[in-house]
Specification:
The chain has about 150 residues and is α/β, with parallel strands linked by helices. It has helices at about 60-75, 85-95, 110-120, and strands at about 5-20, 30-45, 80, 100-105, 130-140, 140-145. It has a single domain (about 5-150), classed as 6-pyruvoyl tetrahydropterin synthase/QueD (Tetrahydropterin Synthase, Chain A, 2-Layer Sandwich). The chain has three helices and six strands; from the N terminus they run E-E-H-E-H-E-H-E-E. It has a six-stranded mixed sheet, sandwiched between helices. Strand 3 (about 80), helix 2 and strand 4 (about 100-105) form a beta-alpha-beta unit.
Length: about 150
């Protein structure tokens, strides 16, 4: 059979809160979303009869393990804030909540995607490349990252 590139996609769901302190609208307040992250990878399926994953680009379970370890387990039910958060607020939040993540970027969907790309890309098997990520923040809003654009 002729070798051809294939893309596979796995979706992940998690809950996360954030605040965009720099924003002029309602999003400057702490609020949460039910996120859906779609991870698409591409490559040529394995052609080796001796392997149990023969015919697969990669096992969906392996992709799930990578994304859960690098993103979902970290960000699910977390509050993500920019490093400019006041020390007093941060002290109060840490005294009352378990998962506070401070990041160097404003935690918009766009910036979260860039972070997620960096967390996933080097963890994939060598023959598999990250093709695109889609982060759905609400039922009607999403951000996308495509390798071909970068």
């Amino acid at each position: 059979m002729q070798k051809q590139y294939i893309r596979i996609t796995k979706e992940f769901r998690f809950e996360m809160a954030h605040a965009l302190f720099c924003h002029q609208g309602l999003c400057k307040n702490i609020h949460g979303h039910s996120y859906t992250l779609a991870v698409t990878v591409k490559g040529i399926p394995i052609d080796d009869e001796s392997r149990s994953d023969n015919g697969m680009l990669m096992d969906f379970g392996e992709l799930k393990t990578i994304v859960n370890a690098q993103i979902v387990n970290i960000f699910d039910h977390a509050l993500v804030l920019h490093k400019s958060v006041s020390k007093n607020l941060l002290k109060e939040l840490n005294a009352n909540f378990e998962k506070i993540i401070i990041v160097d970027y404003h935690p918009t969907s766009e910036n979260l995607l860039i972070d997620y790309v960096n967390r996933i890309q080097d963890k994939l098997p060598g023959s598999v490349k990250l093709h695109n990520l889609q982060l759905r923040e609400t039922a009607t809003c999403l951000a996308e990252w495509h390798a071909s654009d970068n």
